[in-house]
Automatic annotation (TrEMBL):
<keyword id="KW-0808">Transferase</keyword>
<feature type="compositionally biased region" description="Low complexity">
    <location>
        <begin position="371"/>
        <end position="383"/>
    </location>
</feature>
<dbReference type="GO" id="GO:0004371">
    <property type="term" value="F:glycerone kinase activity"/>
</dbReference>
<comment type="similarity">
    <text>Belongs to the dihydroxyacetone kinase (DAK) family.</text>
</comment>
<dbReference type="GO" id="GO:0005829">
    <property type="term" value="C:cytosol"/>
</dbReference>
<feature type="domain" description="DhaK">
    <location>
        <begin position="12"/>
        <end position="346"/>
    </location>
</feature>
<keyword id="KW-0547">Nucleotide-binding</keyword>
<dbReference type="GO" id="GO:0005524">
    <property type="term" value="F:ATP binding"/>
</dbReference>
<feature type="compositionally biased region" description="Basic and acidic residues">
    <location>
        <begin position="350"/>
        <end position="365"/>
    </location>
</feature>
<keyword id="KW-0418">Kinase</keyword>
<dbReference type="Pfam" id="PF02734">
    <property type="entry name" value="Dak2"/>
</dbReference>
<protein>
    <submittedName>
        <fullName>Dihydroxyacetone kinase</fullName>
    </submittedName>
</protein>
<feature type="region of interest" description="Disordered">
    <location>
        <begin position="346"/>
        <end position="365"/>
    </location>
</feature>
<feature type="domain" description="DhaL">
    <location>
        <begin position="398"/>
        <end position="606"/>
    </location>
</feature>
<dbReference type="Pfam" id="PF02733">
    <property type="entry name" value="Dak1"/>
</dbReference>
<dbReference type="InterPro" id="IPR050861">
    <property type="entry name" value="Dihydroxyacetone_Kinase"/>
</dbReference>
<dbReference type="InterPro" id="IPR036117">
    <property type="entry name" value="DhaL_dom_sf"/>
</dbReference>
Amino acid sequence: MMMKQAPKPHFRDEDAVSSALIGLVRDSSTRLRLLKPFPAIRVVLRSDVSPSEGFDKVSLVSGGGSGHEPGQCGYVGRGMLTAAVCGDVFASPSAEAVYRAIKATAGPKGCLLIVMNYTGDRLNFGLAAERAKAEGVKVDMIVVGEDVSLARKKTGRRGLAGTVMVHKICGAMAERGDSLEEIVRIGQACADAMGTVGASLTTCNIPGQPPDDRIAPGELELGLGIHGEPGRERRPAGTSREIAALLCDEVARPGRNEYFEASADEDVVLMVNNLGATTPIELGALARHCCDHCQSDLGLRVRRLLVGPFKTSLDMVGVSVSLMRARAGGADLLPLLDACTDAPAWPRGATEEPPRADDDSGIFRDEGGAAAAVGESAGPPGALSTASPMGDAERELARRAVLSACAEVSCEECRDLCDALDRRTGDGDCGTTLARGAEAIAKDVSEGRFDFSSWPAAAACLARSVQVHMGGTSGAIYNILFTAAGTSLAEAEDGRPTLVRILNALEAGLAAVQKYGGAVPGDRTLVDALVPFLNSAKTIDASSPPESVKASLLESLARAEEGAEGTKGMTDAVLGRASYVPAEDLRGNADPGAIAACRWLRGVISAL
């Protein structure tokens, strides 16, 4: 599902971390500020906290190396952290910076440090805590380590994205006025009641360091750290559904790790975290499959689903999955997760239980629109009802021709070729779009949703199936082509041979495509294949023996293929995405739409 990406160059900045923090506090939606002396120390504070007056509740201070944004500074706000201390990229902040954050926020009720389990963080936060305690400040510390991917080590488990849920729960308790002791008790129970595992298709690219290419294209590394530390194993990547099942099983299935498991019917919170460069559409798909797997395969009750970039790793193309019990330390954690916060990075409205996999209550039904049966005619009902019926042989011919054309377009070779050609001029999905549409059309035919009672009805069904199943420019083009062809067939009830009527209908459909799209031969489109085909096919004598007709059709197909091949030399495209592309990038690359048109023409002819 997720795509391997090449290492990216980075914008240069002599102090990118400090510049990023200045940009954060200048964002008028964040209500944050920086503690002096900045940038000697990098501490982000709530705007309503005065360093000279302390804080009237338990203050919460967290932090660590930068490069994991939005953590930790994105979780500073009412109901979450009071301050965040930021080190250099993947480096612990200094004990001095942590000490300054404690002194700036701690009031009579004390200060809680929430630290991810990394040696540098534990040492520097611990040193700062001891220094503050020596001055009479009430300080305690929670260490979060919820990684389940590694065997037990003396250093303990690594802290990962689940730490953010500890921030939220402790922050809600502090906001309502709970004592330091009670917040520590529940916060530590929360940290102990969760598990996290990560997986990625790439390592992260650290500014100023050479790229690490240990993960090969098509591989997935399981259990890697958020600083690019190698994971437990590498394996073939698989689909998003397979990756989701793997990660959820690694965290929660009994016997899969030494630290955490969840029994059937247990209430849990599921967090699907973007490690940096996974696209939103991929993250959404993974979240869907994670939620489905937890509910259906593991039998868990997912009470909350949190999806987003909570704890990233620069530009890593990966995800982590965290599961936390909804009760810990004798407390119901859901009200604390649901409590209000104005921390800029916490997702708004994440207070509802997600529907189960078999519950479609969140999906609106369109009873009369795109979900309607393909067999319902998209053309004029009067014209279709008066069309001459097909005989059994004609019905089978039409059915075979549609399926053969779909098979040609949906085959892997055609899809990959057209996608590769499309990447030269666009987004590289032409072959995939056509293949998916062809597969869906073939399914409609095979499952009896096509009306082959007459040629106009069959063309109308083809147009309707394209309309429902095929998006993009290709979908619009073929919908127009088949709709206009169906109209032509309905009007041509004059006793002419079927082949002549079909060729005339195809010509009418192409004329409609040219009318609305504006393409003419030479514009580097499917027109460059269909026009020479139709010009050649006009000379076919439909009364000739079948073998002669087929030979003539193959000759016309050869003209279409020559036309498609000729698009390699068309470098002054004026229509479509190719019109935005420099001539040198077009030269020598055929138009994928013209190539695909030749493929379905070949499929139709071979069915004869």
